[in-house]
Amino acid sequence: MDELQRKAIIDHWDRLVEELPGQDMIDYLVADRIIDHEEAINIDILPNEKERNIELIQHLLASRSIHTYPLFVKALKSINDVSSKSLLELIEDRHHRLQQKKELELSKRSMDHLIQDRLTDGYFGSILLAPSLDSDDLPELPSHPVVREKLAKDLVKALFSLRDKNGWIVIRGSEGSGKTVVANLAVRDERTITDNFPAGFIWFKIGCTDINELLIKVQEFYLILNHNEKPPPSTIETVIESIRLLIADQYYGMLLILDDVRDGKILEYFDLPCTKLVTTRVSAISFQTTNYRINLSTEDGYTNSEAEKAFSAWFENDLTSITSDASSITEELKCAPMAIALIGGNILHDDIQFQNQFKMNGSSLENGYATKSVKSAKVEKIKFALGKAFDTVDVELASKLRQLVTFQKCPKIPLNPLNVLWQLNDGQVENIMNQLAKQSLVLITKKRRDNQLPIYELHDIVMNYLVEKSTNLMEMHQSLIRQYEDKFNGDWLAIMDDEYMRDHFIYHLLQAKEYDKVMSILTNLECLEVKLRATLISRVLNDFLQCRSILSKENWEAISQYYQFVICNGNIYNINPQQSIIQMALSKLGWPDIYDKAEKLAKRYCQESLYFKWSNNHQYDVTDQSISSTEIHNDRITCCRFSHDGSKIVSCCDGGEIKVWDSLSSAVLISINCGHSDRITHCCFSPNDKLIATSSWDHSVKIWDVYTGKIVFKYESHLFAVNWCEFSMDGEKIVSCSADKLIKIWDSRTGKDLVICRGHSGGVLQCRFSKDDRKVVSCSSDESLKMWDTSNGKLIFSCRCPHRVSACSFFDDCNKLMCICRNTVCMWNAHNGSSLGQFYCSGEITASAVSLDSKFFALCVYNVFKKKDISLQVWDNKKKKLISIYYGHSNNIYSVQFSPNDQTIVTASYDKTIKIWHRNKKKLNRAVQVKNNLPSLELYECKFIENCLVVYAVHDEKNRLKMYAGTDKEFKLISKYSTFGHRITAICISNNGKQVAIGFSEAGGVQLLSANDIKNCLWHVKGNLCEMTCITLIKFSSNDNNLIVKDGNRQLFVLSSTGAVLFKSGKNHGDITGCAIFPTGQRVLGCYDESFKIWHCYDVSQVVTVRAHNDIIAHFDISYDENMLATLSFDKIVKIWDCTTGSQLASLDHYSSVNTCKFSINCQFLATCCVDGSVKMWNVRSGRLRYRFRGHTTQVLNCYFMQDDRILLTVGDSLAWWQIEDEELIQRFPLYGNASMAYYADDMKSLATTDDKGYFYFLSQIVPKNEAPRRLSFDRRLSFDRRISFDRRISFDKKKESCIIC
């Protein structure tokens, strides 16, 4: 919404507050996504219409979306009542008049007048900031900025001309040429920004940024635009796409300033729907932008008059005070504004010393730079001025200045680390930095938040000069670390709480070569938690990545599992920054070292917080032994290949997408979304890693530039699908093969065919160059392997294979050949084609590779006889022996390759993941994908009986009923029974644990068994005697006196403890969507589509019938006092009813679907679990929202009140405990899947649940040694969910759910 639209609404504020149809307006705006569900609820709970209208209007005025006003107008039109029509006419008329007025004002001002206004005296010296999204990032101006009038005029013209075109303005100039100052001055003018860029501007300093640092910058960009409301996505591509949508929706007409760009590839990420202003010292960047582009240059330097004005600005325009020596130096340095600023500061600082230091004539300066290039000469002039500036600084001040080299990686230096480094207070530090600022050696930025604390910044040239002159850089870093350790008594957690050290502690330790401390911190879960909670996860990962190139191989392996742990679980912290890393480690499989550390910490802190460990996690085997797992494609991945230096990986997929990414951090470097129009079959790097070749089913081979992602050449000589392509060793040729039965060798630059090999009778699947490029080997579906001469295309020899040959390769220095035929590896002599033998794998080989030293084969195997048995196998070439096998992929692997150093292996699979494996490690327990080796159960029921978990389960293959029981220390099979005449379809354990009720299919009826001996049947109600067929549900009443039974014939039965039929509903009521027996066992509830009925068990005539909803009743709950019933439906409405009269007590509207509802123990509140991941708690009497809990990443499926309604447990993608009164998260236990139920022991020591991926969780509370666990009192009925019998959408479906029990 722009200013004119806001003003049109504000001008009619009173009428809108009184007459706006608020509720209708909210419904329309929610539907159009201008207001989200939570905001609508916050407005709804206000006490009267007037307050609701005020809140609604304020929300609309605060919106930045360009769609807000049009949709507001559209809503007024749609409501279509007299009041809305009147308001619409008033607002539209006012807006039209305001537009006419502005257009008239603009028409009176020509472009020349506009520019002239901008160049009036004092304009660029103004310190009034224009509307900015984050003005704290705007760098401070030098002490005496002077306008470069020609460049300033050109910049204003450029800004004006590109204001609506989303183009680029590039200011190019060497170091210290003043390009940043010119851009800085331009955005400080309020009129320039408000007239041209109403959404404001954002300033980003880019500098020397690698891909990981760039990710951090764009994530911070996202947070600024999103006002820190949502966590940023984890990859550059997804962050940029989110930024693009935000700008288009809320910040249309924004100016983005990218300062000091040094890599043109970065501009591709910032090709956003806004005007971009770029400053750079790289000439080529001027031509790497797209769309509208205006190039400006500072290379011409100051004119004589500008130089004189710049120099004299230091003396308040008193030119007579400038010495003749200084004037001559100004003449020499006039093209370097920064040099003039440095010299001017020194003249002002000490004129006499200046004259003594600069006793040289112009010719000496000229001779000194005569042999240098223009660019280097300018840099040398600035260095010359810097050297003289240092000479004029007193010794103590110069010492302080040299110590600033410690902050080389931190462009903005806060006050606090300087206090610590110099052991001075704030005032003393500010005094020192002010003196340096007066001599143009540092810049000072006063932050407009955080109590006006200053931020200091050094120009790159100054910092580089300090680095060049520094001889004891390591000692400086060590000094800073010692000072921090002394201040915080060596407490790393306290040091990490310091905002600066949180982001830079690891950097300083690495520079100080304190590697032991680095490893200790990065493997300290508490330190990781401090940083994960306070900053972006990408910053944590960047700490690890800094170590990769510095630490030894052994040290890196020691910390790499923590790096992988953070990567694998980072999504949890992205959504829930307050997640306890201790509890998260206790909830994950495959990280034994981290688990052990977490358990020790949990025992130390368990008196302060609640911790649970997964007691039965040893029953699950880790099957993913990869050291890295990446999901960067949204389609099946067909190929992946290392670059020749091992730093990058190229991958491609079925959908035609190509990506180049960092092999260590998985950061995407280049993404080509529509590389081919059909499936890409292969991809590879050129020998110099500058090009990529890809082949496809679209009959083409394309060559791409690695750095720009642009196509270099397209080869379309094949008639059918191209299956493979590969560069020659010199990179000048490419060999490709196709379903057209041909192998073609062609020039990689021109695409000219050099040699065509003919001879295969079937499609050619692979072809490979030998190391000397003289031969090519190929394999085909015609069951042959052929060798070709690359000079003339003649066949050298052909080998007959037993089956279709899917892959081939040279090995042993090109003296031997290897090919794959289904499950067979065949080897041949590369000189004459004679057979060298073969060996077999346990399944079909889908991909293969040979290590560079030819010692190992990597084979990807799929065993068709064992479901999901997909593995990577490494074989010893000499012994023909399987030496290691790795699991982790969930679908077939179709690409594999050894890294250039043969230490790792990369695989790509149809499961859309790329994994990297360590060849020398047979059991790397760093995984998130696990499988169980325990029997799967089709149907089960579990309960805690006197703190012992009892599980009755049915194995689907033999219809055997098994009983398991035990505690977290020992849990085992107790008994089993399999002589039932019918298939078991329902199980229920009595609340006292003494009986088990079993329901059967067909006419098998219901049996009640003794829990002590399941072979002992207490009674059996046969289905044919009471027209009971196919039991689908059984539930005991709270006192265990009665059972409610639902059958497949749409009937409800109530059976007594002796098996007598007390109640039968009949078949004429409709489809049963849910049923329950009241806690006392006196009444029965049945839900039929949109209605519910309540019967008295002993008097069928006493019935309450209510049509409750306009859609099917999906779930319900009965209050503990049996007076109220809550029902919810697909219509997103929850209603509360009087159980005696059937009258409606309250209606609770939701803006998202609701899964379940639960009454509190005291019956004062109702909790509703929503699909949007939230739980809302309503006051039953008033129907008003009282509390809201958000912490789940997906829908919440259930909740439980406990500890006298002080604690709420929510169940979904995790188990989360909440303090109700404070709405605070106490603890969160992440799950691998989604759970819908939870079962507790009475003493809260143990908990059991299962998720939809089949994992069974037996959790036990961690308590101090020799101490009893803290008791959380709650109602047993609630924890076991005994009152709720059936939930059509989300209740625990005993027919489909599976669970693994030891």
UniProtKB/TrEMBL annotation:
Say yes or no: keyword Acetylation present.
no
Q: Coiled-coil stretches, from where to where?
A: none
The alphabetical list of record keywords is:
Apoptosis, Repeat, WD repeat
Tell me the GO BP annotations in alphabetical order.
apoptotic process; regulation of apoptotic process
Pfam families for the chain = APAF1_C, NB-ARC, WD40
Annotated GO molecular function terms are: ADP binding
**Domain CARD residue range list:** 1-80
Per the record, its GO cellular-component terms are: cytosol
Where are WD repeat segments found? 630-671, 673-714, 715-756, 757-798, 886-927, 1106-1147, 1147-1188
Name of the protein described by the UniProt record: CARD domain-containing protein
